Structure formats: C-alpha cells, structure tokens
C-alpha cells in the first residue's frame, strides 16, 4: 500500500510538472503610494499602485495566487479590519495629496480581519487576496490603476511612514503549452 501511495504521488507530481512549463513569483513594491487625506469619517485610506511589467508574458499565463502583503509596525492593540478596493481612474500621488481624492469602487475585492490573538502571535500582517483583481489587470479586462486599502483602526500618520512596506506578491505559471 505504501509503495502504491508513493508511486501515485510521484505520478501526480510528474503530471503537474509536465503541465506547467514554468512558474514564477513576482514581488512588487508600490510604484505610487499615498495616504489619502481624511474625509472626517474615521476611515484611513491608502492608495497603492504596482507596476506589473515584471510579469513574464506568454501564451497560457495564469495568475495562480496574488496577495497584497503589508507588515505594519506600531499598529497598537485590538482587532484590526482592512479592505482592498480597486481604483477606477488614473492618479498620481501629488494629485491625491492636493485634491484629497481618488476614484475607487465601493465594492471590496478583499477583506482581512486580525484578532488580538493574531496580533500578539503575528504582529500586524495585512494579507489581502488580490488574485481576481490582478487576473483582471493582466488579462486586460480592467486597467491597473491600483487599489485603495481602508482601515478604521490605524491612523494615516502611522501608515504614511510605512507605505514602502506594502508588497504585491503574485504567483503565476504558464499552462497548456
């Protein structure tokens, strides 16, 4: 029985390896990042945009997973909630700083909640699923204008010095070649 299980696992691995000619991971820091000036509603908003030109192109490319990962220090105690919303028009950090706004969808593409226990064990690690959004960008269905991350529990002042800590991590491969 054990030999059969090992043989099955090896065949499965070989089959998966044969169906994927290559796989990659892209880690992108923000090409633009800014804390959006407060609108007085108690929500902190951060606009982030990532350059995805480092993704290799080719027939059969598929986004397998994508996450916005952001370790935030000095986040304080207590539960934290975050959401990611796609930005719907082009922007620059200086424009957002001066006008105080950027256009974005009100429908989150991802949400993340950290409990106090998780904060104690992990620190404030934000991990928002961005697979569908990144797939939409790379397939040309929507324009990559970036995303807005929202939270009520961490101030814009705290986040403004940590914008470069955010990373978009994308796992992708080429299938069916």
Strand order of the largest sheet: 2-3-8-5-6
Number of domains: 1
Mean pLDDT over all positions: 86
Q: What does the main sheet amount to?
A: 5 strands, antiparallel
The number of helical elements comes to 5
Tell me the number of strands.
9
Structural category: alpha+beta
- Portion of residues in beta strands equals 35-45%
Distance between the termini: 35 Å
> What global shape is seen?
globular
Low-confidence blocks of residues = 1-21
Radius of gyration: 19 Å
User: What level of helicity do the residues show?
Assistant: 25-40%
- Summarize the helix and strand pattern as letters: HEEEEEHEHEHEHE
Q: Which terms would index this structure?
A:
177 residues; alpha+beta; 5-stranded antiparallel sheet; 4-stranded antiparallel sheet; 5 helices
């Amino acid at each position: 029985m054990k030999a059969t299980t090992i043989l099955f696992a090896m065949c499965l691995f070989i089959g998966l390896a044969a169906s994927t000619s290559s796989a990659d991971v892209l880690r992108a820091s923000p090409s633009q990042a800014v804390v959006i000036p407060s609108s007085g509603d108690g929500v902190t908003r951060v606009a982030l945009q990532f350059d995805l030109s480092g993704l290799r192109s080719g027939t059969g490319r598929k986004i397998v997973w994508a996450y916005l990962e952001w370790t935030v220090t000095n986040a304080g105690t207590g539960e934290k909630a975050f959401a990611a919303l796609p930005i719907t028009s082009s922007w620059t950090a200086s424009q957002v700083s001066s006008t105080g706004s950027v256009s974005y969808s009100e429908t989150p593409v991802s949400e993340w909640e950290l409990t106090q226990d998780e904060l104690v064990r992990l620190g404030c690690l934000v991990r928002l699923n961005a697979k569908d959004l990144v797939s939409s960008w790379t397939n040309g269905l929507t324009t990559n204008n970036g995303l807005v991350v929202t939270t009520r529990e961490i101030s814009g002042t705290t986040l403004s010095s940590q914008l470069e800590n955010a990373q978009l991590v994308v796992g992708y491969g080429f299938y069916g070649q």
